[in-house]
Design brief:
Oligomer: heterotrimer
CATH class of chain B: Mainly Alpha
CATH architecture of chain C: 3-Layer(aba) Sandwich
Number of strands of chain C: 10
Shape of chain B: flat
CATH class of chain C: Alpha Beta
CATH topology of chain B: MetI-like fold
Radius of gyration of chain C: 18 Å
CATH architecture of chain B: Orthogonal Bundle
Largest sheet of chain C: 6 strands, mixed
Shape of chain C: globular
Chains: A mainly alpha (about 220), B mainly alpha (about 220), C alpha/beta (about 260)
Order of helices and strands of chain B: HHHHHHHHH
Radius of gyration of chain B: 21 Å
Mean pLDDT of chain C: 88
Strand content of chain C: 15-25%
Strand order of the largest sheet of chain C: 6-7-8-3-9-10
Structural class of chain C: alpha/beta
Helix content of chain B: over 70%
CATH superfamily of chain B: MetI-like
C-alpha cells in the first residue's frame, strides 16, 4: 500500500478532536504527580526509616516501564473489585510514575534556598508558619517552576501511552481510524506530526516562562 | 503456574528486550555524541538544522515515533525488521536526550582548558578529542546510564508491534490463564531485576564523578 | 509563645542594669567544646566588639544570644529574663534581639520595603500602613529611602547590608547583634555600613559586634573582647586593649591584623 497524503490530512480533524482530552489528562496528571511528589518529599524528611522506604518505592517505580505500570493498574484493580474509568487509571498511572521525579524537584527546590534565609526570618521573631508561608514557599515555588514546566512537557509526551488502556486521547483516535480503515500509516503520521508540533510549542512556552522568571529575579 | 514459573516465562522474552536495548544503544550513543558536539560548535543556520534534527527525535513521544516508523516506512517502500525499526526509533529518541547531556557537559568545561590547548598549538579537533571529551565524559556518564535505563524501559513498547519481548510474553501468559495479579506483578519484578542494578551502578558512578570533580577546584 | 516560656522559675531578675548577661556559658558540638565558660556582661547602651582568630567561637557566641545556636550549660539573660535553651518557641526573645548577618540574608522575592515590614506585620500583627511608616523611618535612618521599591538583587552589597540593618531595627530590638557585617563587602562599601553602625551606637543602641574592623572598634566600642579557642582571653576598653594588651595571644593576634 502506498502512502496517501490526502488521506493523512483527512484524519487530522478526527485526531484533533481528542486534543482537549490529551491536554486535560496532562494537567490532571501533572497536578496528581505534584501533590504525590510533594507528599513523598515531606515524608522523606520526616525520619530515617521513612526516608529509606520512600527511596525504595521511588526506585521501584522508576525501574519499571510506565507501560507495564499502566497494564498493572488497568488489569489488577478490577480483579480486586475496584472498577475505575480508563482515564482515571491513566491519570493515576501517570501521577504515580512521575511523582518520584517531582519529589526530587521539590527536594532541589527546598534545598536550593540558602540556610541564611531561614535564620534571618527566625532572628526577626517570625513564627514557623509565617516563615514557611512568606519566606520559604515563595522561593521554593520560584525554584521549581522551570523543572516543573519541563516535566509538564514530559507528561504531555507520555499521554499517548494511555491509548493502550483505551483512553480516547489522540493516539487512541488515530488507532481507531486505523482499525476502521485498515490503513495505519496515514493516521500514525498525522498524530506524530500533531504531537511534535504540540510538544515543541509547549516546550517553547515553558522556556519563555523560564526567561520571564529569571528576568523578574533580575540576577 | 506459580509465580516463579510466570517469571521464567516472562524472561523468555529477555532476548528480544536485550536485543532491542543493545541495538538501540548502537543508534543512541553515536547520535548523542555527534549531534551534541555539532550543536555545541555550530552557529547560525547550521545550528538551527542540527537543533531541528535533535528536537524531532527528542520532542516526539517515543510511542508515537515507534508507531509512525513501524507503520509508515513500509508504505514508502522501506521494509525493515521489527527489531531494527524499534531500535532505531527508541535509540534515536534516547540519543536526542543524550545529545543535550553531551552539549551541557561540553559547555560546563572551563574555557581555560581550550585556551591552554590552543596555546600549545593543538588543532581544534585534537583539543576536542584529547582534552574536552575525556573531561566531559565524566560529566556525561551518569546521564548516559540514566538514558540506558530509560531505553530498557522503552523496549516494553515493542510488545505493541508484536515483538516477543518480556511484556509480550507476559500478555501471552495472561491470556493463557486469567491471573493478572501474579502475571503483571511478575512483569514489574522482571523489569526491576533488570533495571535496578543499573540504577545502583548509576548512583555509584555519580558519587565517584562528584568526588573527582571537586578536586577541579571551585571559585 | 508567651514570656512564661522564657522565664525559668526562681531566676533573679537583674533588671535593666544589664542588657545582656552571659554567665558561665558552655557549648559543645558533639564532643568539640566550642564555648568554654564564657562570662560577659553588656550594659544598656554599650557597644561590645568581639574579635579573635577564626574558629575562636565568636560567631557561635553571639548566635547563642538569639538562640540560633543552643547552649548546653550556663545562662544567658536578656534584659533580666533568662533564655531557656530547650524552649521550642523563641519568637518573643527574637523580637527583642536583632541580628545582622555577614551575607545579609535579605528575602530576594520581597522588595526592600516588604523585607522591613514582613516581621512587623506577621510577628507583631501591625497594619500595613503603620508598618510601612516605621519601615520608611528606618530606611531613612540608614539613608536608603529611595530604594524602597527595589528588590535586593538590584542593590549593591553595601546597600543590601544597610537594608538588613533597617530591617532588624524595625522590630525595635533591645540588643543588636552583628555577625561580621562587613566581611562580605567590597572595600569601598565597608564605610557606608560602618557609618550607619557608628550612628546607631551614638544613638544608644546596645550592640554586640563580631568584626575585624579595628578602626570601628577603636572609635565606638566601650569594651573589646578577645576570644581564642572558645575562651574569653582578654576584655578591655579600646584605650587599654590596643596600647597594652595583657595576654600573649592577644598581642600575637593584634600584631597580625594591625
Amino acid at each position: 500500500m502506498k502512502f496517501n497524503l490526502a488521506f493523512a490530512i483527512e484524519t487530522l480533524p478526527v485526531i484533533l478532536s481528542a486534543l482537549w482530552t490529551t491536554i486535560w489528562v496532562t494537567i490532571a496528571s501533572c497536578a496528581g504527580a505534584a501533590i504525590l511528589g510533594f507528599l513523598l518529599e515531606i515524608t522523606r524528611r520526616s525520619g530515617r526509616v521513612m526516608s529509606y522506604v520512600m527511596r525504595f518505592a521511588i526506585d521501584f517505580v522508576r525501574s519499571t516501564p510506565l507501560l507495564v505500570q499502566l497494564y498493572f493498574l488497568y488489569f489488577v484493580l478490577p480483579f480486586y473489585g475496584i472498577t475505575l474509568p480508563a482515564f482515571v487509571v491513566g491519570i493515576m498511572g501517570l501521577s504515580i510514575y512521575y511523582s518520584g521525579y517531582l519529589a526530587e524537584v521539590f527536594k532541589a527546590g527546598i534545598d536550593g534556598i540558602p540556610n541564611g534565609q531561614f535564620e534571618a526570618a527566625q532572628s526577626l521573631g517570625l513564627k514557623r508558619f509565617d516563615i514557611v508561608m512568606f519566606v520559604i514557599a515563595p522561593q521554593m515555588l520560584r525554584n521549581i517552576a522551570a523543572p516543573m514546566g519541563n516535566y509538564f512537557v514530559s507528561i504531555l509526551k507520555a499521554t499517548p501511552y494511555l491509548a493502550v488502556i483505551a483512553v480516547p486521547e489522540m493516539l487512541g483516535e488515530a488507532m481507531e481510524v486505523a482499525s476502521d480503515t485498515f490503513r495505519y500509516a496515514e493516521p500514525m503520521l498525522t498524530v506524530g506530526v500533531v504531537f511534535l508540533v504540540l510538544a515543541v510549542t509547549v516546550a517553547h512556552l515553558v522556556r519563555l516562562m523560564e526567561v520571564r522568571l529569571l528576568k523578574s529575579a533580575r540576577r | 503456574m506459580s509465580f516463579v514459573d510466570i517469571l521464567i516465562g516472562i524472561f523468555d522474552g529477555f532476548g528480544v528486550t536485550a536485543s532491542v536495548t543493545l541495538w538501540g544503544m548502537a543508534y543512541a550513543v553515536p547520535f548523542a555524541l555527534i549531534f551534541g558536539i555539532l550543536q555545541h560548535f555550530t552557529t547560525g543556520p547550521a545550528r538551527v538544522a542540527v537543533t531541528s534534527i535533535i528536537e524531532f527525535w527528542r520532542s516526539s513521544p517515543v510511542i508515537v515515533l515507534l508507531f509512525v516508523f513501524y507503520y509508515s516506512l513500509p508504505t514508502v517502500g522501506i521494509t525493515l525488521s521489527g527489531i531494527t525499526v524499534a531500535a532505531m526509533a527508541l535509540g534515536l529518541n534516547i540519543g536526542g536526550y543524550g545529545s543535550q547531556a553531551v552539549r551541557a557537559a561540553l559547555q560546563s568545561l572551563d574555557p581555560g582548558q581550550v585556551e591552554a590547548g590552543k596555546a600549545l598549538g593543538l588543532r581544534r579537533l585534537q583539543i576536542l578529542v584529547l582534552i574536552e571529551l575525556p573531561q566531559a565524559f565524566k560529566a556525561m556518564t551518569p546521564t548516559f546510564i540514566n538514558q540506558f535505563i530509560q531505553l530498557i524501559k522503552g523496549t516494553a513498547l515493542v510488545s505493541l508491534i508484536t515483538l516477543s519481548d518480556m511484556t509480550f510474553r507476559a500478555k501471552e501468559i495472561s491470556q493463557l490463564q486469567y491471573d493478572p495479579v501474579r502475571t503483571y506483578t511478575a512483569l514489574l519484578v522482571a523489569y526491576f531485576i533488570v533495571c535496578y542494578p543499573a540504577t545502583i551502578f548509576g548512583r555509584w558512578v555519580e558519587k565517584r564523578v562528584a568526588v573527582k570533580g571537586r578536586s577541579q577546584g571551585e571559585i | 509563645m508567651q514570656v512564661g516560656a522564657l522565664m525559668k522559675s526562681g531566676s533573679v531578675s537583674h533588671r535593666s542594669e544589664v542588657a545582656v548577661d552571659i554567665v558561665s556559658l558552655n557549648k559543645w558540638y558533639g564532643t568539640f567544646h566550642v564555648l568554654k565558660d564564657i562570662n560577659l556582661r553588656v550594659k544598656p547602651g554599650q557597644q561590645i566588639v568581639i574579635c579573635g582568630p577564626s574558629g575562636s567561637g565568636k560567631s557561635t557566641l553571639i548566635r547563642c544570644v538569639n538562640q540560633l545556636e543552643r547552649h548546653q550549660d550556663g545562662q544567658i539573660f536578656i534584659d533580666g529574663r533568662e533564655i531557656d535553651p530547650k524552649a521550642r518557641a523563641l519568637h518573643d526573645l527574637r523580637r527583642d534581639v536583632g541580628m545582622v548577618f555577614q551575607h545579609f540574608n535579605l528575602f530576594p522575592h520581597l522588595t526592600v520595603l516588604q523585607n522591613c515590614t514582613l516581621a512587623l506585620r506577621r510577628a507583631r500583627g501591625m497594619e500595613r500602613r503603620e508598618a510601612e511608616e516605621i519601615a520608611r523611618h528606618y530606611l531613612e535612618r540608614v539613608r536608603i529611602p529611595e530604594q524602597m521599591g527595589k528588590y535586593p538583587s538590584q542593590l549593591s552589597g553595601g546597600q543590601q547590608q544597610r537594608v538588613a540593618i533597617a530591617r532588624a531595627l524595625c522590630m525595635h530590638p533591645k540588643v543588636m547583634l552583628f555577625d561580621e557585617p562587613t566581611s562580605a563587602l567590597d572595600p569601598e562599601m565597608i564605610n557606608e555600613v560602618l557609618d550607619v553602625m557608628i550612628e546607631l551606637a551614638r544613638d544608644g543602641m546596645t550592640m554586640l559586634c563580631v568584626t575585624h574592623e579595628m578602626g570601628f572598634a577603636r572609635r565606638v566600642a566601650d569594651s573589646i573582647v578577645f576570644m581564642d579557642g572558645g575562651r574569653v582571653v582578654e576584655q578591655a576598653p579600646p584605650s587599654e586593649f590596643f596600647t597594652s594588651p595583657q595576654n600573649e595571644r592577644t598581642r600575637t593576634f593584634l600584631s597580625q591584623i594591625l
